[in-house]
Amino acid sequence: MILVTGAGGQLGRELLRARWSDGAAVCGYTSAELDIRNPDAVGSVVETLRPNVIVNAAAYTAVDRAEDEPDEAEAVNVTAVKTLANAANHVDALLVHLSTDYVFNGTKSGWYTESDPISPIGVYGRTKADGEQAAEAAHKLLTLRTSWVYGALGSNFVTTMLRLGAERDELGVVRDQVGCPTAAGDLARAIAAVAAAVGYGTRPTPQRLYHLAGPDAMTWFDFARAVFASSSRCSDIEVLPIATDEYPTRAARPANSRLDSSAIRTDFGVELPPAVQSIANVVHELESSPRTATNRI
Ligand SMILES: NC(=O)c1ccc[n+]([C@@H]2O[C@H](COP(=O)([O-])OP(=O)(O)OC[C@H]3O[C@@H](n4cnc5c(N)ncnc54)[C@H](OP(=O)(O)O)[C@@H]3O)[C@@H](O)[C@H]2O)c1
Asked: How is residue 263 annotated by DSSP?
């Protein structure tokens, strides 16, 4: 049994539709069904289901709002993670916890590996960094740092680009931040593969922390152009490269957050598909499905 928290989010929804091998049953709880800040509720669900694996896809992910709501972000991204780790220990489950590229400050010129020092520059990144520490209370742990998550289920950069592309003739997009776009569906399938590879918690993992992100690095500007190149509806829009300071945001973002995912590829043979392919798949799904095409950010 796999328990998924945050099952209404981008990754959570994809985890529920991923194919899990060995007939593993997956049980997802949205925030309304299970608030991970409530230790009694978490304890009760975990005691009842007695999962082998808990995938924590729940998080406070509003990067800008977190600057004004640090306590709210900390409650979900740190305190609740400790609760989940303790609950996992109680039933001897593997905790699969998700973290972020925003634990880095972005000043490194190359790709970030798991051994690089973390130094978050915003509240969201700080709480996620503290959440990694909180997850360390789990006896069986896989913390997976990912980045720039997008998909057909939820609101994200791709859904925003498609919406703006339908409204405007030109669009300025930041050209001086670089990262690795990661499709939520690819990430969910990779998590399922890694969980199966460790026997759903019955075999030890070589490391407790891995990077797991899309293999290709690009700027937001390049990402936008890839979205429009795949779009059948807004391929005429002109995308203009702009600097970060021309698009001020409440929270600072790392200028470079390229995640090197080679360790998980070496240890588990897991590698996400090329960005161009995954972006095209998501754009196609958004533009061909009336249900997902109504996503708004
Ligand atoms: N999105 C990205 O670009 C990105 C990048 C790097 C890492 N990550 C990490 O990847 C993971 C998955 O992110 P995502 O993109 O799937 O985020 P998401 O779409 O924002 O989903 C997060 C989910 O967590 C739920 N949640 C919030 N507070 C909760 C609580 N107290 N109890 C239970 N559920 C709660 C939210 O429910 P409500 O909507 O009802 O609040 C939402 O469904 C997170 O750990 C995130 O930090 C994401």
From this structure: H
